Amino acid sequence: MAVLDGYLYAVGGQDGVSCLNHVERFDPKENKWTKVLSMMTRRLGVAVAVLNGYLYAIGGSDGQCPLNTVERYDPRKNQWTAMAPMSTRRKHLGCAVFNNMIYAVGGRDDATELSSAERYNPATNTWNPIVAMMSRRSGVGLAVVNGQLYAVGGFDGTTYLKTIEVFDQVCDTLFSSERTAVLILTFP
Fold first, then answer.
1. Is residue 188 part of a domain?
2. Which of 12, 69, 129, 156 could be bridged to 136 by S-S, CB 3.0 to 4.6 A?
3. Phi, psi for 180 (deg, rounded to 5)
């Protein structure tokens, strides 16, 4: 799910039998769902991000294997365009926009949960690796809070995690903190 220009977009998923490439847009003023142009690829466990007036569909699975492909939707033209692929195939990844770049972290490939992370620069249409998380995390939540990028929870292949990792953009590193310690942090 993502919000773009006041509309809520539902992207991909599964109908119980197969992965979907459908995209629907909800207009809260009209209380109405409308189908828009479908993605080029079927995607389950896809991450979505909104940047510079575009909706990005990142990774996921086509039902057979994880994907590294990325598509960008232009709502003004009702058109999908293939963008540069990630370096790693990932499904159930965390994704967020931070400092005008898209961050894709964790997820799962064919064999295991991932700790690797990368970021997309829309100005150059390129993905570049960044420091990996300390923990493998599939189904990780990724969010920006008070100018910091937080990776929250997820599954490491054995355990559902109760930890948070914070990306330090100055040092290009991550540091870890127990959930209770993060809850008592105060921000300026």
1. no
2. 156
3. -65, -35
